[in-house]
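Weekly modeling sync, notes
Attendees: S.R. (lead), two postdocs, one rotation student

Agenda item 3: backlog of single-chain predictions. S.R. asked that every request posted to the team notebook include the full sequence so nobody has to chase files. The rotation student volunteered to paste the first one in as an example of the format we agreed on. Action items at the bottom.

Example entry:
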Amino acid sequence: MRASSRTSAFWRLRLLLAVAVLTIAGSVWLVSQAQRDAADRAYQESAAGQRMLVAMLNQETGFRGFALTRREEFLAPFKNGIRDFEQALRDAGTLAGDERKARDLSLQADTARDWRAMARTEIARLRADRFRSFQTGPALMRKQVFDRFRVQNASLQRDLTAERTRKLDRAGLLSVAVILLVAFFFFGVSYFLIDRQAKAARRRREREREYKRSQNEFAETMQVMRDEDEAHNLVKNHLERAVDGARVVVLNRNASSDRLEATTALSEDSPLSKTLIDAEPASCLAVRLATPYSQKAGDRPLLACSLCGASETDVTCVPSLVSGEVIGSVNVQLSNPPSHEERERVADSVTQAAPVLANLRNLALAEARAATDALTGLPNKRACGDTLKRMVAHAGRSVSPLSALLLDLDHFKQINDTFGHGIGDDALAAVGEVISANLRTSDFAGRYGGEEFLVLLPDTDREGAAQAAEKLRATIARMEVAGLERQITASLGLACYPMDAGDADTLVRMADRALYAAKNGGRNRVEVAVGARDGEPGDADSWALKHSIEDPARLEALASSGLLDTPPEERFDRVTRELAGALHAPGALVSLVDADRQFFKSRIDAKFDPDGKNADDRETPLAYSFCKHVVGGGEPLVVEDAQLNAVVRGNPAIESAGVRAYLGVPLRTQSGQVLGSLCVFDREPREWSDEDLQRAQQAARDVMLEISPGSPSRA
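Predicted structure, as returned to the notebook:
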């Protein structure tokens, strides 16, 4: 409960208590007043009856004194009693509130008058005859009349006493009833108010629980968002679900282009669809002021928001703040004026989402930088490999061609040496721009390494890819770079999936061989890979393999190892023996690939003899070598069935040595030169596992630890 609500409820309760006390006090006072009035009236009625009796007694006393003394002064009480009686009778008649009392008073008055008449008659007789003796008979009659008056007066007094008692009892009951009625009334009112407040408090607690639940759900869901777009849509959906009648637009501050952009869908009638065109971040007051901004429909503030000012509905805009930096805002248009809770909901949700959005943005930037070549702005080799695998998989599912171009700048080392690396970098950047400008949206281009670029053309066959490659070659040849006073040319190799290769690695390898063919053919030209899928190496294949094997730097490293034409050594035999045993293979080799032969520094299998002449022969021509392909490609070669493998199925060692399965890994020096291969083989087709490959690679590392380039072999 907010402080203002608690204060209001506190004063309402105090006011209710004060009213209850005043009402009960007033009720008690009114009942007490009624009791007092009833008591006074009953007292006055009783006093009037008493005065009537006293007046009659005074009359009787005066009459008796006159009758005994015959003296006139004794009649004074008689006369005064008559006057007092009449006055008391009038007072009693005034106080009489019902006919019964009036009738009783009338009877007493008649009785008193009868007695008075009898007394006057006797007084007249006594005046006429002062010596008249007292007559008993008339005296008895007067006594009877007087006694009747006494009885009537006593009856009236009893009735008045009973009536006063009844009135007092009734007044007491009325007092209790009034107090109870007032108490019940205020109990009901207070119960109603307290119950209403309790229900309101329960509803408020339920709303708070629901608020916390939904906000926790929102916060937890935000943590599993994969990218900014998904997170922006979650913010939009959450607020539109939580705030009735809300239309939410998430705005992103693009710092690089100094623009404020909508990252969620805009409805056609949204005023933001027009005001956001080329909008700068400062055009949003929430972003500009770094504080929530609200504007009611029809308001015209002194400083109006350029984005929200044209809205015909209430608008609340909350900036996304992270470490004091505004990364965007959330614009909420409402059909009804927002409540305090709705404003809090929007502010809390944006506050919760901002750090997650910032982290996702930083992660996306980091991933983009990790996958982007800083010089050209194109994807780097890592991204090229990931994209290649993905596009080959898609081409396989969609049964569509995918062409790969490998582009290499001609004599680029001369450019660096002659004009400097700065000009060389400018040339690479310019080539990257030319490649990007001449591709379709669906195409891919990346820097594959050094001055080499990879271009992937989905849904493009050989003919279409050759045309695209030729266009690129010609455009690069016409390109000019400031400070570079010579023509830039490029050689391109082309291979097409699935015609030339059945997987991503083979596709690039075939394009690379075609590229070497283009280099060997005079440069500044396009070559297409031919014949690889038929298992018969074409010119590009043979030339690239020959180029790798006869590389002078590699042959120099091989000669420097001092291992060629040396006797077997236990340190190498131990490695091949352990590898063959671990992989349950019949044979293993440490094969050093020379320019025209392969030499076995270690051989575990006496039957591995291509000519069948001598089991001690420790070399074979390259025509019988599987290991030459490991040297040529610089990567492991995995052959599950040599008779079906496109690379080696024409190798004569399949028949002469019975090799059907082969697993070879390169023996690479610290300088990157591949001396040969450590391999295992089997005479039956088999599937090599990832664990088998890892064991072979570890064994190759053990072999290289035993090799000391430049030193003589140790016996």
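Discussion: group reviewed the output briefly. The radius of gyration is 61 Å.
Action items: rotation student to repeat for the remaining queue; S.R. to check formatting next week.
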